[in-house]
Design goal:
Elements: E1 2-3, H1 10-13, H2 41-55, H3 57-62, H4 64-83, E2 89-90, H5 91-108, H6 114-117, H7 124-130, H8 132-140, H9 142-148, H10 152-157, H11 167-187, H12 196-202, H13 213-227, H14 229-244, H15 246-261, H16 271-277, H17 279-291, E3 301-302, E4 308-310, E5 313-315, E6 320-322, H18 325-328, H19 332-335, H20 350-358, H21 373-380, H22 383-390, E7 391-395, E8 401-407, E9 410-422, H23 423-427
Parallel strand pairs: 1-6
Antiparallel strand pairs: 2-9, 3-6, 4-5, 7-9, 8-9
The structure holds protoporphyrin IX containing FE.
Length: about 425
């Protein structure tokens, strides 16, 4: 595998004809592959055409009120559990609680209930994090996995079943329960939900057929796995900046105050309002995703066509090339000498921003770029933003401001304790 740091090479490496390599073989997902792990580019193009509708901005926009309700519930729970009791909060799990509840609500019509319970229900998050390193090692042993996939041995030892007590097993049970309930509702003529599952069920293939139920199951699981921790990590990174960089925090607060004074923000703010009126907030989100990506995985592809030239050396078709946002986003040729520093302003010069976005790798790249980007951004533009509007966020000790941890191809923060003081109280 050839590891690449040059961001200018992304368009060639991640072009439309590039197949994903066998590195993506994941026996744990079961026999039917979802869009993320499908390797062959032609098959992926077909799936992407089908999935484009459910994940389109127009469709996601319709779900915004569902996100709003979850964000407001999250704030209410934080108030009850920590603000009213004058207690510090370990912020990192709470962002993931919100992200899981949002994704399960807009994905399948019911929040898992992390926020309501205020805890890691059935230790789902703990179990999922615990298995990450082992999964990453297995990924690297893909010739072995390829041999085992589909065999009795592979199914017995690697495929998570709904009966398993692992984090994945619990999510599978949840998925099956939600799907069963929805199919029953549809049988009884109950419609009206605006969520991803409903659009998956209504989607038709190019020859007019409904999607296979096993395929829908596989996509549903992907949403639960790809959509929560990743989003939580960005929210955590943002709050880490607020409690460690007073200059950044001050500027964020000033921007929000000005937008509020001008009457530009609803409660909670709309995705489009934040995009239009809070450029520094948006720049901070991008800079957080640049330096502390949620998925600092390798994302390997097979070189296609006539090969790729790397500084005079040709990587011919079939060679496995890979990169990770962790490296790409620190490329000094793209970001300058201050590439290692948190400088949101780099995203605020329109011409420079256009170029940086063209080579941004935080949501993947090219034809396989993240389908849930708008869902994630909608949530990130609401949750922490509304928190900043309502509270002053104070660190609780220098050694508890958060640690960015990479496990396998996934990253998250932990040990981030903060005190939330109502802004009204601070003003008095
Ligand atoms: C900040 C949050 C998120 C980050 C950083 C992120 C990151 C990524 C990355 C890096 C990829 C490309 C993987 C590859 O090339 O192998 C990807 C693909 C994908 N993501 Fe996300 N993601 C996020 C949120 C979400 C959400 C909320 C959903 C769903 C609700 C989602 C669904 C997907 C899907 C379906 C794909 C596969 C796209 C394809 O192969 O065509 N993601 N994501």
């Amino acid at each position: 595998m050839l590891l690449v740091q040059d961001s200018m090479k992304l368009p060639e490496m991640y072009n439309r004809q590039a197949d994903k390599s066998d590195y993506y073989i994941t026996p744990s997902f079961g026999p039917v592959e979802n869009i993320l792990v499908t390797r062959e580019h032609k098959h992926h193009t077909q799936l992407r055409k089908v999935m484009a509708g459910p994940y389109s901005y127009t469709n996601i926009k319709k779900m915004e009120p569902l996100v709003d309700a979850r964000v407001m519930q999250w704030l209410e729970r934080l108030k009850m559990e920590f603000v009213d009791k004058d207690m510090p909060v370990d912020f990192t799990p709470w962002t993931v609680f919100l992200a899981y509840d949002v994704i399960s609500e807009i994905g399948f019509g019911a929040p898992i209930g992390f926020v309501e319970a205020g805890c890691d229900q059935e230790n789902i998050i703990k179990h999922l994090h615990a298995g990450l390193r082992e999964k990453a090692i297995l990924n690297r042993l893909y010739p072995f996995l390829k041999l085992l996939k589909g065999t009795w041995l592979g199914r017995k030892y690697f495929e998570a079943g709904a009966s398993a007590s692992s984090g994945l097993g619990i999510l599978l049970k949840l998925r099956d329960r939600l799907l069963e309930r929805r199919l029953k509702d549809l049988e009884e003529g109950k419609e009206g939900r605006q969520d991803l599952l409903q659009t998956f069920l209504k989607t038709r293939t190019v020859d007019g057929k409904p999607l296979d139920i096993e395929y829908i199951k596989s996509e549903v699981l992907l949403v639960l796995l790809a959509g929560a921790d990743t989003t939580g990590t960005v929210m955590q990174g943002l709050i880490h900046q607020c409690i460690t960089r007073p200059d950044i925090y001050e500027r964020l607060r000033d921007e929000i105050k000005a937008a509020d004074k001008a009457g530009c923000l609803s409660t909670p703010p709309k995705y489009e309002e934040v995009s239009a009126h809070c450029p520094f907030y948006v720049a901070c989100v991008r800079e957080v995703m640049r330096l502390w990506p949620s998925s600092p995985a390798l994302f390997p592809r097979l070189v296609s066509g006539s090969g790729i030239d790397f500084e005079g050396k040709l990587a011919p078709a079939g060679v496995e090339v890979a990169s990770t946002p962790f490296l790409i986003h620190r490329d000094k040729n793209m970001y300058g000498e201050d590439a290692e520093e948190f400088v949101p302003e780099r995203w605020m010069e329109p011409e420079r921003c256009k170029k940086l976005l063209k080579y941004f790798f935080g949501f993947g790249y090219g034809a396989r770029v993240c389908l849930g980007k708008d869902i994630a951004q909608m949530e990130i533009y609401k949750g922490p933003m509304q928190l900043l509007r309502e509270y002053t966020i104070l660190p609780v000790g220098d050694d508890r401001v958060g640690t960015y941890t990479i496990a396998g191809g996934v990253a998250y923060w932990n040990n981030m304790f903060v005190k939330l003081v109502p802004n009204k109280k601070m003003a008095n």
